[in-house]
Design brief:
Helices cover 21% and strands 35% of the residues. It has 229 residues and is an alpha+beta fold. The strands form 3 sheets. It has a 5-stranded antiparallel sheet with strand order 5-4-3-6-7, with helices on one face. The model has no long low-confidence stretch (mean pLDDT 86).
Length: 229
């Protein structure tokens, strides 16, 4: 629609023939189908030239995010998102964002397009992300700030990077909804469980720093004792 509004007499346009001749002798053309063809051509050229494109995020879906490039729709897997975008996707705060990407792979016949934000990062941006994560070591303890919470996880910022505390790693007792025990702005002591700078992964645990109730289970519930349950 935006392209049509910008058209003026004398412009050269790409159009697809729908019907060679109607009952009035006119040739029927489609600008919508031609727009898709033009976008495919631009996408193919960008892939050949390893050129960066801009896409709009539609929303988070299983395994990544759905994006739109003009009239075409594509997909960015979590593994191909930058660290900051991945964290935003985890808390559904990435919709509407514009990302710089490169075409990772495509199949025009199947209408399938996979983009990569990480491939579009400059060497400096990628190096900064990897360096920040490399400073965080597995097994170490940090105090971070809760940036966002979903029912299944709490996201904690340590220095300039964010990590995830899964709901099962919040406490020894079962927690059904992480939003009931944490909120943005809270300070949280966490232990690093896993860090992978190349994949932009930082997994944390609060439970690992809490006393293990099973260590004193025999004292609390000796064999043969009667307890209310």
């Amino acid at each position: 629609k935006e392209r049509i509004k910008k058209l003026k007499v004398g412009d050269k346009i790409l159009a697809t023939v729908i019907q060679a001749e109607d009952n009035r002798g006119y040739i029927l053309l489609s600008l919508r189908k031609a727009a898709q063809e033009a976008d495919w051509r631009e996408l193919e050229n960008a892939y050949k030239d390893s050129r960066t494109l801009e896409v709009e995020v539609i929303g988070s879906i299983k395994g990544g995010v759905q994006v739109r490039f003009n009239s075409l729709y594509g997909f960015i897997p979590y593994s191909q998102l930058s660290l900051s975008s991945r964290m935003q996707a985890n808390v559904n705060k990435i919709s509407g964002k514009t990302l710089k990407v490169k075409v990772y792979e495509y199949d025009k016949g199947a209408g399938r397009i996979v983009f990569s934000e990480r491939e579009a990062q400059t060497e400096g941006e990628r190096a900064e992300e990897i360096e920040a994560l490399s400073k965080i070591k597995p097994g170490e303890t940090y105090e971070g700030e809760v940036t966002s919470v979903t029912p299944f996880a709490v996201f904690v910022r340590i220095d300039s990077v964010e990590g995830m505390v899964h709901v099962n790693e919040l406490a020894w007792e079962k927690i059904a909804d992480a939003t009931k025990v944490a909120k943005p702005g809270d300070k949280m002591q966490v232990k690093v469980i896993e860090v992978n700078p190349e994949e932009g992964k930082l997994i944390l645990s609060r439970k690992a720093l809490l006393p293990n109730p099973w260590d004193k289970i025999k004292e609390k519930y000796p064999i043969g004792a009667r307890v209310k349950a």
